[in-house]
Amino acid sequence: MWRLRRDDPERGVVAPLTALLMVVLLGMAAFAIDVASMYSEHAQLQNGADAAALAIAQACAKDPSSSDCTGPAAAATALAGNNALDGVTNVPNATVNLGASTVDITTQSRDTSGNNHFSLVFARVLGIQSTNIEASAQATWGPPSNGGAFPLAFSDKCWDLSGSVSTGDLQKISWKPGITCTNSSGHTIPGGWGWLTQSSPCYATTQAGSTSIGSDPGNNFPSACQSVLQGWVDTLNGGGTVKVIFPVFDTATGNGNTGSFHIIGFATFNIVGWKFGSNGSPYLYHNTNAALGNPNLACAGGNDRCIIGQFIKYQSIGIAGGGGTGADLGTLDVHLSK
User: Fold this and answer.
1) d(CA 201, CA 214)
2) CA separation for the pair 56, 75 (Å, rounded)
């Protein structure tokens, strides 16, 4: 015997429910995939803005009349495009402020058709065709106001680099009673150097302005710096150059552990030789008339100590604090400020 069944009111709802859930899942997929693409695009734009700001700031620090400094838009567009996977980026803003020593860059998405937007893929299902993505960066340049490096400070009486030259006179900076600086012509002026108290092995942190830095006593070379000297020797013997940023002081008080130096700024010294001791390498390097090609520059024997080289104009990128109170001694720090 056949029994009659009643109709189930819930039958047939699976298909429309599945369709509805598919729309929701598709929307979630669109959100996830497009957001990931937007994140990648913004990272490319930020890299381009950072690279353009730093490069143009370097150009302005070196020569304010250079084409990259006076017309930054072209340079910014090229640099930003080089950091994009598709090679295309719009730069709606590229501004140089020489008075404030800043470069401001804004980058924006641009597709290969020249449209200034980022085209979405899956979000089009929801009616969203594109979005605007931008990134910005600011770079600044100026004399370093603080930093840390080799624990030796030079007197400003030894600093001979004028604003009109890029490389100073080859000279010897000495430590001995009546410490002096001697140029390649044999002219001697009062000055010299002072060892600084180390904040870590072979490293002293300094601040330009009112800060005074305590000195180590005498002319004894810091034992922690032997490996640094060996690195200098290896670099020079390999045909390289050793350029070190040194703090520069204008006044010194006391002596030994009670001494201090008033740091006014930072200068870069291209080192070619030295005498920090009498025990051979690495404490002695090219400290002979023959090696230096000049009878005025080699350090004498005994307890005399010296370092030989020339002050140079130099740009560092983000290794020292710029935009502070440091005197302009030819060394400029370029860094991102925003």
Assistant:
1) 16
2) 7
pTM listed for this prediction:
0.76
pLDDT in tens, 1-36: 555 555 555 555 566 666 667 766 766 766 777 788
Q: Which residues sit opposite 270 in a β-bridge?
A: 243, 310
Select from 144, 171, 142 the least CA-distant residue to 263: 144
d(CA 73, CA 52): 9
Omega within 30 of 0 (cis) for the link into 190: no
- Return the structure tokens found at 329: 């001694």
Is pLDDT at 254 greater than 70 in this prediction? no
By DSSP bridging, strand 130-131 and strand 118-119 are: antiparallel
Beta-strand relationship, 331-336 and 134-142: antiparallel
**300-306 — which CB contacts under 8 Å span 24+ positions?**
300/176, 303/176, 303/219, 304/174, 304/175, 304/176, 304/275, 305/174, 305/175, 305/176, 305/219, 305/221, 305/275, 305/276, 305/277, 306/172, 306/173, 306/174, 306/175, 306/274, 306/275
Distances (CA, A) of 71 to 57, 97, 104, 110: 12, 12, 13, 21
Look at the alpha carbons of 322, 318, 155, 294 in this order and tell me if their dihedral is positive or negative. negative
pLDDT tens, position by position, 93-116: 999 999 999 999 999 998 877 888
> φ, ψ for residue 175 (rounded to 5)?
-120, 120
